[in-house]
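2024-03-11 09:14:02 DEBUG pipeline.ingest accepted 1 chain
2024-03-11 09:14:02 DEBUG pipeline.ingest length=379
2024-03-11 09:14:03 DEBUG pipeline.predict start
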Amino acid sequence: MNTKFRLWSLTLFLLFNNLIFSQNKTLGGIPQLNINKILSEKWRLNLKIESRNKFFEFGKEFQNLNQLLSMKDIYKKTQNDITPKHLFYNRRKILKLGLALTAYVASNGITSAFAQEMFDRKINTLEEITNYNNFYEFGIDKTDPAKHAHKLTISPWSIEISGLVDNPGIYDFSEIVREMSIIQRTYSLRCVEGWSMLIPWNGFQLSELLNKLGVRDEARYVSFETLLRPEEMHMQETNILNWPYREGLRLDEAMHPLTIMATGVYGEPLPKQNGAPLRLIVPWKYGFKSIKSITKISLQREEPVSSWNQQNPAEYGFYSNVNPTVHHPRWSQASERYIGGEGEGYLGNLFTKRYDTKLFNGYEEVAPLYEGMDLSRYY
């Protein structure tokens, strides 16, 4: 697309804005929006980490304005469209909703059908899961990981276990997986940017691995580290973050039955752009805590480094629990949009339906972990 067309598209959109969103008017029940403010905020938050001109990106987004006329026909996907892997639903029996969730996940995991009923939303497709994510080692746009992660070599793969454990060492990934009980968990993944997906993971409970390693009494935290290989992860040659990517959990968080190490999605091996071959999943925390492509795990006494907290402690706390009342300076956490949901992809997602965000992402059974803590301070 040439520059003139991009400029024309943006100009047409702004004219559309002036015509439709005039004072005290609504469009289909949608209140007046200050689109110019929204655009400037999106430019501002992206320019912080991107050295590109977002002006032309908006021109590309608005080139299909004519599709507004047929928005009502866009989202008529059937259940088969959303969940293409029919065998995934038949793997385990569906337990009654009245069972205590913690006891349920500890023994059986969360099946896709159970999760859909619990969350009242559709599970995301494999295409959505693999083509819209953050993995800054491969780029800063949501589609960059899918474009560049093929360069990553994941075999052989080893994990270095160190610190306050009885059995430290360097373990082959396949050796670890053989010793674990593989389960399926369908979790909501909530990004701090205000969007979420419902993803069917397979993997094992982190607690099972830690128990086999033998955690010493003095250990209080678990730290994780992503692969450092700039020749395959080209963004590690930049200073966006202090590489390699690091994350950490309190030991009781790591031992909670909801915390898993994912080795796959939809019953298949984990795609490279989603953190192959091994990543952390902590469903009640924002997505950046679920570190990808792990090569090091260490048990320690002191609170470990968390990369985004290290980069900007005013914006990212160590705990990073999903909390609709504690807002990020650039993103409200009160609500979220569902990737693949109603209104997605139009006018920069301005018309996308938003849903109330729940404390701990809806996983209320973890609340006792933070009893007595000021969640606005320990964010």
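2024-03-11 09:14:41 DEBUG pipeline.report The longest strand covers residues 195-205.
2024-03-11 09:14:41 DEBUG pipeline.predict end
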